[in-house]
Amino acid sequence: MDNDFESIEKMSSGDWYVATGAEREEVAQKTALLFHEYNQIGPTDPARTAEILRTVLNPASGTCTIKAPAIIEYGFNTTIGEHVFINFGLTILDIAPVRIGARSMLGPNCQLFTAGHPVDDWEMRSGGWENGAPISIGEDTWLGGNVTVVGGVSIGDRCVIGAGAVVTKDIPDDSIAVGNPARVVRKRDDSRLERSQLPEGASVDALGILPTKSPRLSENIAEKY
User: Fold this and answer.
1) Is residue 187, in this structure, part of any structural domain at all?
2) What share of the chain is helix, strand, coil (3-state, %, to 5)?
3) Which residues are catalytic?
């Protein structure tokens, strides 16, 4: 086997590669051990769990919360934005890059799978060949519990993906999508903002983390699908 087909660079590129090779195994094992520790610690040592995330995730990541248990296969290919909150049971297979935008939320047991295998060529599949495609999740987006996102998918900013959805195609900004496969059922609508239900004087930005200016919908973006 040509060592190039076993390299981390080949794995991350989206080309066909073989999941063998000492370098890749070393990185995967190191990350697996760190997440084993992460899950054993749970909520008992926040400083150590934060240190593990800084060690594992792409250096461009911000400060985020990931509830244990969680597993990220490699880590260096995963970039998580500032103030992202991820609930229990996360799984990320990041042989290709994964990006989660600032202030997004993932519900329990969400799964992001960049990994792929041959579909028609069963001999190639059984022979160990794999490839990957990136996943991008925008800012201020909410994935409900048990959402699965497959490789090659981009989900835009300010989207809501309903619980149990399987996202197999791109979802544009400001969309509400549900189902398997997920489909857009409507656009986010400024006339339905829940802030009208808040007590008088309550701040929309209760955590003080929103950008200075929030995007508003244009007149035609609320068009129904």
Assistant:
1) yes
2) 25, 25, 50
3) 117
